[in-house]
Write a structure and sequence with these properties.
2 copies of one chain form a homodimer.
Chain A (H helix, E strand, L loop, with lengths): L2 H12 L7 E2 L2 H8 L3 H13 L3 E5 L4 E5 L1 H18 L4 E9 L4 H6 L2 H11 L8 E5 L4 H4 L8 E3 L2 E2 L4 E2 L2 E8 L2 E8 L7 E5 L4 H4 L7 E7 L3
Antiparallel strand pairs in A: 1-3, 2-3, 4-5, 4-12, 5-11, 6-9, 7-8, 9-10, 9-12, 10-11
Helix pairs in contact in A: 1-3, 1-4, 2-3
The structure holds a DNA duplex.
DNA sequence: ATTACTAGTAAGCGAGTAT
DNA sequence: TATACTCGCTTACTAGTAA
C-alpha cells in the first residue's frame, strides 16, 4: 500500500470515519493533508478502488466510511507502533524451521546443562534444539538483548572438555513455552535455538521450512 | 514530513533503532521496504538531513540510530493510532476561543437549567458559556456523540416560553473540568459551548482567539 | 458550490556506475 | 563488498476546467 494512501486513511479515521459515515469534501480533506483538492480527490478514488473506503457521492457533498479492509490495514499499522513503544519487554520474530546439525542434542544432553536448566528455567529440555532461521536483517533486534538481564547458565567442566556459559531468555514459539539459548561467545547470528520441555516438532507438527512466530521476553 | 520517510523511520524503529544503533545496509533496508537499493539510500540521506536518524558510515556497513526528533515524530504517529483504536471513549479537539453573543449567559441563568445541572452534572455553572470554534471539518467527530449516551437535561417551561432539551457530555478544556452542552434541536455546528463551575476565561487566562484543547468523554 | 478529467510540470524511481 | 551520484523514465502533482 502506498504510504500516502495510508496517511489519508488515517486522517479519515481520525475524523471518525471508522464505523461511521463522515461528510467531507475533497477540498476539506486536502486542507487536512496539506495538499491540493485534485490530489485529495485522486486519493479518494484510489482508496475507493482498493476497497478501503466506501463513498456516497451526492451533488454537493460526499459521505465517506472506512471499510473493514481499510480498518484492518490501520490496525496493522497500530500494532507496529505498539511493538515499537509499548511491547518493549519482548521481541517478535518470524522465522523458518531449520534442520539442525544435531549439535543441539549433544549439548542439551549434558548433565551440567540439564541440571541448570531444571533449576533456573524450571524444566528439563527435550533433547535437541529447534533451530529457527530469521531474516538476516532481523538479527538487529537481537542486539536489544545485549544489555538486558538474562537467565545465565554457567560454564562447567567434564573430564574431557569445558562447556561455555549460555544466556537464556524465556520465549514462545507458536504459543508454546520454552526458551532460546544464546551461547555467550558466538556472535549474534540469524539462527535462534529454541529449547522446550516438549518435543516441539511433534507437538506443533513442524517440518523444515515451516514458518513460525517466536516471541522472546526480557526485562528492561 | 513525507509519508515514505515516516514509513522508513518506522521500519528502522521496528528493527530496534530507537536508543540503539543497528547495522543495516541500504540493500537490506531496500528489501524491508520493497524498493531499490538506490531509493533506500536516498531515504536514509533525506532522514539524515532532517536530523531524524544518525549514521555512522563505515566502508562495509553503516550503523543507524533514530534520533530524539525522529522518535518524537513516531510517537506522534503512535498517539494518533491510539486515538483511533484505544481512546474510543473520548474525542479530542483543538479549537479557538470565540467571543459569544451573550446568549449563553441568558440560558445558564435559568433556574430550570441550573437545578438540573446541579443534580446531573454536580455543579452550578458559572454564568455564561465559553464558546470554542473548532475546524469546520472536525464537526464530523461530533457525529460520534450521536449514538452515545448523554447526560440529558430535560426541557421545561416558564410563564413566558419553553426551554428545550439539552444533551451534555463531561469534558475538559485545557485540563479543567466541565461539560459541553449540545442543544437537541440544532444541527451539529463547529462551535462548542463549554460550561464549568469556574469562570474559565479568568481561571485559564483565556482571550478570544486563544487555542484550547477540549476532550469530550462519553460512554460507548 | 461540488468531483474529477486533461495536460503540463515537478518529484520520485532505479539502472548504471564512480568511489 | 559498500554508498550514493547521474540521468532517463515513470509516477505524482496541480492549474485549468468540464460536468
Amino acid at each position: 500500500m502506498k504510504p500516502y494512501l495510508l496517511q489519508t486513511l488515517k486522517e479519515l479515521a481520525l475524523l471518525g470515519a471508522i464505523k461511521n459515515k463522515i461528510e467531507i469534501s475533497s477540498l476539506e480533506l486536502a486542507k487536512q493533508l496539506e495538499t491540493s483538492q485534485q490530489t485529495a480527490s485522486r486519493y479518494l478514488v484510489e482508496l475507493d478502488k482498493k476497497g478501503m473506503i466506501k463513498r456516497e457521492l451526492g451533488i454537493k457533498k460526499q459521505l465517506i466510511m472506512v471499510t473493514g479492509i481499510g480498518e484492518e490495514k490501520l490496525q496493522e499499522e497500530h500494532l507496529q507502533y505498539k511493538q515499537i513503544f509499548e511491547l518493549t519487554d519482548r521481541i517478535i520474530f518470524k522465522g523458518k524451521v531449520l534442520s539442525g546439525l544435531g549439535e543441539g542434542r549433544y549439548y542439551t544432553e549434558q548433565d551440567g546443562y540439564i541440571e541448570q536448566f531444571r533449576e533456573k528455567l524450571g524444566f528439563v529440555p527435550y533433547p535437541g534444539t529447534l533451530n529457527v532461521e530469521i531474516e538476516y536483517v532481523e538479527r538487529n533486534k537481537l542486539r536489544l538483548l545485549k544489555n538486558s538481564k538474562a537467565i545465565n547458565i554457567e560454564e562447567f567442566q567434564t573430564k574431557n572438555r569445558t562447556f561455555g556459559s549460555v544466556r537464556c531468555f524465556r520465549a514462545k514459539i507458536n504459543g508454546s513455552d520454552g526458551a532460546i539459548v544464546l551461547p555467550l561467545r558466538t556472535h549474534y547470528s540469524n539462527i535462534l535455538e529454541f529449547i522446550s520441555y516438549n518435543h516441539l516438532r511433534e507437538k506443533l507438527n513442524l517440518k523444515d521450512g515451516d514458518e513460525v512466530k517466536i516471541v522472546i521476553y526480557f526485562e528492561n
